[in-house]
Amino acid sequence: MHPFNPLHGLRLCLAVAEPASRARLARALADAAWAQGRDLQNADVVLDVAAACGLPQAWAQAQLADPGIKQALIDTTERTADSGVFGVPTFQLDGRLFWGNDRIGHLLAAARGDIPEGVLDGSRAN
User: Which pTM value belongs to this model?
Assistant: First the structure.
């Protein structure tokens, strides 16, 4: 379902410090939302996905309410918006932003070197 409020998933991803674990959680959350149609607005769903990724349930639940994590997400969101990110999903490749599901093909082409720098809207590919 789209649009949805991603706060629970965003907070939990931000709380996971280890990059590989964070990536695993982010992929699992994306799969839950987009492939399985699960409701990430529901904290229990996010906690279930986190548990499937090996994150302790009590720890994950505490992160969702942690004031420091909430503020870190606010700060990160502001920095992200200031950097030019506008939509989801957003990917960055060599300083170029690709956002929106309809731009994933452009991202893949740029990763292969099939789209020269500056061809897609200057430095941004959206």
Answer: 0.76
